[in-house]
Amino acid sequence: MNPKLPYVLLVVAAVIIFILSCVLLSRGRQSPSCESQPHIVEKTGSTSQSLVFADLTPEEMVQVVRYLQGNLGVRLVDAWRAKPSDNCIASVDVQVPAKAEVLRFLDGGGARPAREALAVLYFGDQPDPNVTEYVVGPLPTPLYHRDVTVQKYGGKVPYHRRPALAVEYKQIAGFLKSRVFPAAPTFMRQVMQYDGASLAAMTAAPRGFQSGDRITWFAMFQNVSGFFVHPVGLEVLVDHSSLDISQWAVSRVFYNGQYYRDMVQLESTYVQGRISVEKVRKAPRDGDFSSMKPRAPSAALFPLQYEPQGPRYSVRSNHVLFQAWSFAFGMSVKTGLRLFDIRHKGERVAYEISVQEALSVYGSNCPGGMSTRYMDSSFGIGRHTSPLVRGVDCPYSATYVDTHSLSETLSPTKRKASLCIFEQNLGSPLRRHYSNLQSLYYGGLVNSALVLRSIATVGNHNYMWDFIFYQNGAIEGKVQATGYASSSFLHGDGLRYGNRVWEHTLGTIRTHSINYKVDLDVGGVKNSLVAHDMAFEMTRAPWSPEQQIERPRLTKKVLDTEDQAAFRLQSKMPRYIYFAANSKNKWGHQRGYRIQITSFSGDHVPEASSMERAISWARYQLAVTRRKEEEPTSTSIYNQNDPWTPTVAFADFINNETITNEDLVAWITTGFLHIPHSEDIPNTVTVGNSVGFLLRPYNYYDLDPSIYSHDGVFFTSEQDFTACETNPIACLPKTASCLPNFPPFTYDGFQNM
């Protein structure tokens, strides 16, 4: 044997081991991390100009509170501990300047409007208790305040109309615990299994039957996780109209289908054995069937969305840029998410798009349920905006924005990550065509859109508010509903008002109606409203006159007045209705933006109802009116507690004024009927509970603007469609083969409660 052979074999073996090691190491190595690349963000709008719409900063809120404390000449108690007979600050929000002032600043080189705040104060410690609204300015160092209550509402706001503060509910809970429940000790112990903390109360609203009432039904539930679906059959009508808490009283008591004068009568009747008792099994603290805890262990990870070259949008202060879009955003304490100065390709298409109200009307054979008509702006849609959970409420890699508010306290509250912004690949083409006739080619465009989202948790309801910006110039406003279904105790003819969803739980029927304000400025401030639709016409075939053809034709109508532009909820509405500009596109058509509504609303409250005028915006699926500074909102936070004499009645906005070539506003109502069913346990899903509207270009451009998108894909049969230069999708194995830089998971939703 050649003596060198063992050495040769050793060398060969070492080389093989080295090669195999390299292969194995390369296979086990992670892909490189994604790195942001320079990307194109078209310059459309100014960040500094958008600050004219910006929410108040915490520092500004503090300055407003200090100014009010030092300049009103009255003692202001912190709203968290105020009695009804005290003076307190209910809320402080930004006062958005008048549109004419803003446009002079944005478009005409005029002076920046004074920055001001709107403060809502409760004056309980006065001979004539009332609610007063002050404009305070200029910020950041206030020097003046002016009472705008009469100017806005035509008179003072009576004190009984004030939205209930959190402390008032706390005081009512104390009243129930210390003065009401002890009046029926045997019943509460044996039937309710009450231990001083085992019941939770849910308020009804409005509070009574006529102006001046503040008499509220409170339904009792087991105080467990998801208590909304654990009714126990007991409801108490509390008269809390007096400013002296010691004068509060029980007006009626309801238990299992029967009404009683008070808890004393209920106790006496029970002790005598004259009550039909339905004893509810005591639920564990986690709620058992109402628990949101998953019933299955974690398995393979769900798909994730990420941006391999970093975000293609920018967020600076309250200003967002995305491709051809720009807009300013804000968060109203009362009504939640709102947008201003929305521009596409540098041209303003809308001045304001904002949520106005979320209404729910309930049915039940229990008093609390049957009397409930929640108007959520009164409770504060923006105030109840909740911190978002990264990776569930929004994509993990979204941009999360903190918001600040001052409501029912003397100091600002920070809600971390309560608003998110992200670009979303919707998983389908925005447009496409595959050609196998004449020429062979494929052309398409990824449907990637920018989403601005907040989620408000108002009691049992969770509303997910989205504004979505598409590459073809369309804007979508969408709301998805989830959360717990409200319920009543199942008794008697309860199944007329919903479905049984657990042993003693009736999921009660309700309607949900959402109102939006859409101030479109199409090609300028002055617009007209035009309706296009279709009709079939009969004609003789020109080449064969003995034959008849039915052909659809276009119908056109200019809607001249507000009455013509007010479409009742279930009425037929033109399928193409649009704001028309005074300018035309290349093809001679008026440039326009079309309003397209997605809704499956239940019926509106009968207009004969004594409270209907307070929610009269819900009569209409669409109403277009002249824009007026004195008609800034379709409703008022004061309508909830006095719907019989509404502070704002939307029906009064519609008075047959001319709307041709005027500054117009579209008031859009969308909604759905919810009949809870067993699949609403433990929680209602968003699938099928999504409604909203689209604003779509209609002859606004000469062709689809998305043809200029950088995301377009086109190749022919004669091209090498595997080459990056021809087809950018072919580059994905290289450009997207990286790991996203996900930040560590954090959540601050349980802080500063």
UniProtKB/TrEMBL annotation:
Q: Where is the Copper amine oxidase catalytic domain?
A: 305-707
Describe its PTM? Answer: Topaquinone (TPQ) is generated by copper-dependent autoxidation of a specific tyrosyl residue.
Spans through the membrane: 7-26
Q: Report the cofactor remark.
A: Contains 1 topaquinone per subunit.
Q: Which GO terms describe its molecular function?
A: copper ion binding; primary methylamine oxidase activity; quinone binding
Every Copper amine oxidase N3-terminal domain range: 162-257
Biological processes, Gene Ontology terms: amine metabolic process
Question: Matching Gene3D superfamilies, A to Z?
Answer: 3.10.450.40, Copper amine oxidase, catalytic domain
Could you tell me which residue ranges the Copper amine oxidase N2-terminal domain spans?
A: 74-143
Q: Which cofactor does it need?
A: Cu cation
The EC code for this enzyme is: 1.4.3.-
Alphabetical keyword list: Copper, Membrane, Metal-binding, Oxidoreductase, TPQ, Transmembrane, Transmembrane helix
Entry-linked InterPro entries: Cu_Am_Ox_Cu-bd, Cu_amine_oxidase, Cu_amine_oxidase_C, Cu_amine_oxidase_C_sf, Cu_amine_oxidase_N-reg, Cu_amine_oxidase_N2, Cu_amine_oxidase_N3
Under which main EC class is this enzyme filed?
A: oxidoreductase
Write down the superkingdom of origin.
Eukaryota
Q: Tell me if Transferase is a UniProt keyword of this record.
A: no
Its GO CC terms are: plasma membrane
- Homology family: Belongs to the copper/topaquinone oxidase family.
What is this protein's record name? Amine oxidase
The source organism is Chordeiles acutipennis
